[in-house]
Amino acid sequence: MPPMVVIPIRSETLRILKVQHHNVASVICNRVNNQKEEQYLVKWSSKKPTSYPVFSWHTPLELVNCLELVQDYLEAKQTHSSRKRKSPDTDTEIDRRASPANRLLSSSRASSTSSTERSSSSSGRTINAEIKTYNGVLEESKGAITAKSVTQPDIPRISVADIPTLDMVQTARSSSTYTAENMIRNEILQRLRALPGAKVHLSNVHDRSAPSLRFKFIAESVLQEGVFKADPATQIGCQQCRPHMGRNIGCEYTKKCDCLEYASVDEARLSDEQKKEYRTIREEGGSTIGLPKKFPYYADASDRTGCLVPFYLRSRNPIYECNDSCACGPFCRNKNVQRGRHVELEIFKTKKRGWGLRAKQDLREGEFIDTYRGEIITDEEATRREESGGKAKASYLYSLDKFAESEGLSQEELYVVDGEYMGGPIKFMNHSCEPNCRQYTVSYNKHDCKVYDIALFACRNIPAMEELTFDYLDKDEEEDDDDEAVESSQPSQESVPCLCGAKKCRKWLWT
Ligand SMILES: C[S@@+](CC[C@H](N)C(=O)[O-])C[C@H]1O[C@@H](n2cnc3c(N)ncnc32)[C@H](O)[C@@H]1O
C-alpha cells in the first residue's frame, strides 16, 4: 500500500504563499476546516511517473495561481451532482471534457478506508474537516509552495488509491465553495475590465458559476503554427483619397481605389458603357478598377451612420475596408470593423444553453457588434482538434473558406478560427435558427484570401438585453431557402439538439 505521510499544517507560513500551477495535477476534493476556511485537496504533479503522488489541502488564496483547476473541479462536481438529481432543468450546454476530478467523483468507492480516515469519519464531519493531512513535506521556495515526498515508517498511512475517500466525497458535497467561486468570478471580472472598447458585463442569476478561466480574451486573432498572413507589402491602399475632401468620409472615390478592386460594384451607378464593360468582366474575368463600388456603411445618415447598408446586410458579399496603406486617414468611414467594438455587452448565463451574449443598449439594424476571434489554425490541426473534441467542438471552429471557390483553394489549404480557448465576447454568442445577428466577411487586404475577419452585425433592430444570436450554419444566399434539407437530415448520436426555441427551428445544431 502506498504510504501517506501526515505532517502538521504550517498555516501561518503557508497561507501567504501560493501553489504554482505547474505543481498541480488536479483538485480532488473540498472541505471547510475548523477555522471555517474552505480548503481544496490538491494532487501534485510529478515530473516522473510515481506511485506516491503528493496530496495536500490548501485554501483558495493559496491556489490563486491555479484557480482554473479549482474551477474544473467545481464544474465536474456540479455536473456530477445535477446528473445524480436527474433534474429536468439540467443544462445540456457543453459536452465538457471529463476532468480527473469528475472521474473520481463519479467512481463509486466504498473501498477500504485507512485507519486515519476511519477514525475521523466515525467522529463526524467537523472532526473530519480538521484533519490536516499531507503525504509530503511542503516547503517554501522562492515565494511558492513546493512539495517533497517522504517515506517515514512511523507515519500513519492511507492508500493513495482511496483518495478521495467516501468520507471526503460526502464532506465535499455539503461544504461551502463560496470563497473559491467568488475568486473565480472576480478573476473573470478583472479580465473583462481589461478588455479594450466598451464595457463587457457578467450576469448569472441561475448559479454561482463563471465562464471558464481557461478562456483567454484576446484583442486580435493569434496565428498558430503553419498559418501565414499575406505579406504586408501586398496590402495596397487608396492613394487619391484624403481625410477631408468631398463628402468628408475618407475613402470617397471608391471607383478609383486600388484597395477596393474586389469590392462589390454599384450597378445602379454604372453608365451604359460601364454596364457593358462589367458584363464582359463577369464573363471573362478582369479588374473592376474604375467602376463605382458600393460603400459598405452609411456615411452620413444621422440615425444609421456607421451601420451596414442593406445591399451588404442582405447579401453575402465580402466587405472590403480601407487599410493602413490607404491615404484616406484614420477617420475614414470605410474603417469600421477594424476600429473594434463600441457596443456595451453582457455575458449572461442562459437557462439551458450555457453562457449567452446580449447588448446593454439598443442596437440598430446593420450595427457592428464585434469580430469572432480566436486561434487561426490549419485545416489539418482543426481536424485533429475536432476529432479529439467531438461534435461540440464544431461550434467553436469557423472555417475561413469565403474565397475557397473563387480562388480555387482546396480544403487542406484553408485556415480555421478556433474560438474555444482564445477569443472575444462573441465566443459566448449562441446559435438560433432565426437569429438577430449575422456574420460577414471583412477584408483589409484584397490579396489575402485566407486570413480575414468574421464580423457580427445586427441584422435587425435589437432592443437592449435581448439575447444576440447568429446562425452557426453560415449559409450563402442560394442555400438560404434550403432549410428543409437541413431539417430532414438524420441526426447522429453526436448531434447536438438545438434549443433556440425559434418557430422555424431546424432541431439540431449539426447532424
Ligand atoms: C460558441 S459556444 C456558445 C457559448 C456557449 N453557450 C458557452 O457557454 O460557452 C457554442 C455552444 O453553445 C451551445 N449552444 C449554442 N447555441 C445553442 C442552441 N441553439 N441550442 C443548444 N445549445 C446551444 C452548444 O453547447 C454549443 O456547442
From TrEMBL:
Example GO molecular function: histone methyltransferase activity
Primary location recorded for the protein, binned into one broad class: nucleus
GO CC, any one term: nucleus
InterPro entries according to UniProt: Chromo-like_dom_sf, H3K9_Histone-Lys_N-MTase, Post-SET_dom, Pre-SET_dom, SET_dom, SET_dom_sf
Domain SET: residue ranges: 343-473
Keyword terms, alphabetized: Chromosome, Metal-binding, Methyltransferase, S-adenosyl-L-methionine, Transferase, Zinc
Keyword Cell membrane on entry: no
Stretches with biased composition (Low complexity): 99-126
Domain of life: Eukaryota
Compositional bias of kind Basic and acidic residues: 87-98
Biased composition (Acidic residues): 477-486
Name the record gives this protein: SET domain-containing protein
Lineage of origin: Eukaryota, Fungi, Dikarya, Ascomycota, Pezizomycotina
